Amino acid sequence: MVKKSVSTPIQYLKGIGPKKAKSFTALGIHTVEDLLYYFPRRYEDRSRFQTISQLKEGESQTIKASVLARGMRQSWKKRGFNILEVALGDNTGKIFCVWFNQPYLKDYFKVGQTLILFGKIERYAGRLQMNSPEFEILAGESDESLNIGRIVPIYSLPSGITQRNLRQMIKYGLDEYLPEIGDFLPYDIRSRNKLLNLAKSLISIHFPQNPDLQKESYQRLSFEEFFLFQLPLALRKFKKKEKQGIAHNVEGGLADNFIAHLPFQLTQAQERVIREIKRDMAASLAMQRLLQGDVGSGKTVVATVAGLMAIQGGYQAAFMVPTEVLARQHYEKIKCQVSPPKAGPPTAEVVPAEGGSAYGGSCQTKKVKVGLLTSSAKRKEKDKIYKEIREGKIDFIIGTHALLEKAVEFRNLGLVVIDEQHKFGVGQRALLPQKGLNPDVLIMTATPIPRTLAITLYADLDISVINELPAGRLPVKTLHFQEKEISQAYAIAREHLLQGSQAYIIYPVIEESYALDMIGAKKMYERLKTKEFKEFGVGLIHGKLKQKEQDLMMSKFKDKKLDILVSTTVLEVGIDIPEATCMITEYAQRFGLSQLHQLRGRVGRGSKESVCILVADVRTPEAKARIEAMLKYNDGFAIAEEDLKIRGPGEFFGARQHGLNELRIGNPLTQTQLLKKAKEEAVKLIHLDPKLETRQNALLKEKLLQRFPEYEELILVG
Fold first, then answer.
1. What is the 3-state secondary structure (H, E, C) of 587-655?
2. Domain of 365: which CATH number?
3. Domain check: are 330 and 303 in the same one?
4. Does this model's pTM top 0.70?
5. Of 197, 298, 518, 658, whose CA is between 20 and 30 Å from 177?
6. Rounded to the nearest 10 degrees, what angle do helices 198-206 and 211-240 cross at?
């Protein structure tokens, strides 16, 4: 007889099979264990329901009622738009439920059926109504122990699976496979933190007997996630202390001359961060530092100074960014900044290399040779850059993912800078430093998070923050208009254009989308250049254009040959045009909060007053919260905190961010103290057993390797 295992593919669980398994796979549920860790998104207390007479307008509530009548009608406003109405009642009153353009639902409901419904209570035309409520049809009494008379879990459903089906599948999985799950949290850690065991936690998170047990289960499972997240960080920090790094010559003249001849004064925050980096780079331990700074705070200058500190001691510096547009901008900016000033001693004379280009050439200087490498470079150009990097002829290489290619070999890599680190996977971020002998690493992000949270989440990194904008930089004024008020937004843009400034007009999609009821950037570009802004130069840029076309359009805009740039979110990172003082973001409700803030950061780069106009018809609480946060805050840290509250940590940090895609239940924002406890326990455990070799940590080691295979070497070597 084959031993039962929680790693059994989901299709072999009773009631699923190959066809339904595909729906689960789409949600990342591949095994029985995945299913048991697929947690409810909310609960309903079905031990008692609200009667219809007790319902309160404006609140989301749960009722149990019977179908009295149903009917389908056509909308008089929109041809082909169906409206299904179902009248329901209990012994205290009547309510109507309405579903829009879902005609297939008419076959679901039959007079006399008992339904459980959850939705927002509204009053329309003098009657109580729920619009598109969640519902379940009570088929009989046989399985009501899972679906009624108790606290009932509500899940995000795989395609083709009902709530009742999913509850039954999870119950069967718990009954059959729970004994096969070992509790990998060491007993002493559970005891110190008063945590439930794993079996009881999984049962009670899905089918809690009471709210207290559900809360205790939530605490245990959240702690478990935080603890597993912190262990690799604690391991990496512990291991870092044992590795010899590079003690750089940070007091050399190259970096000092560069700072002295900048055409602007560094902010106090930039000077403080440079001192922190200088202290790290002078030490023999390898620097592992995270630099947080809002859009336009001057992180690139700080990274350039760090690069020059490595170069002046005979080492090479590599600067990796997520997009070709951003790579080129950094290349052009750094190349310009190491050029000689018009007066005073030269720090570096820039001479373009023969045959060089924006995407494969290099820049020869007396002291620093700067190169650029991206995937779109031609093979001949790439080979030339590879050779120059390998021979140490390029000191400062700026590039995209192309820097990770096997052909890229450094002669003496001393510093790695990774910009917009959340755009890279954990495996990608680890590859570039491996091309040197334990080089210093500076990771940068313009997506800041609250400092106390960052210290815990990035436990293996030292953290620097640039919390000050350059002198003369005015905050961007943010306005909100409804879609019907778009002419007012265009009028404001026209005022800016007539004063000699430039404008961006942003759309969420390239092509028109009937499903989303949105006009795309391409169609609006054709309209704007022939109607609203026909007397101005209008350009179009989006991600489907060839790189050369994107570069040409950006060059035209930068050289003021264009007044308006119609764009998608390809502008989200890195574009720096001081003369651009107006941005209109249409369908702003379709963008995330941090994305809106990043886009807003494309204006206000100079000394002129700038405006960001959000055009949006706000229909959901989340969209309303995003727009309100944009109107209220200009500070990236405040925006980030609001974004965490609105979206939750999983979406905020992104699936590729190490460990945080594992936070299916834990919330770092609302459970900060639990996260800190988990961190303390992880650090304590790693100091006692850095290779997780003891018997009590065997299951934990197995689980860690299963969750984070990319850290196998780190975990096994310790």
1. CHHHCCHHHHHHHHCCCCCCCCCCEEEEECCCCCHHHHHHHHHHHHCCCHHHHHHHHHHHHCHHHHHCC
2. 3.40.50.300
3. yes
4. no
5. 658
6. 130
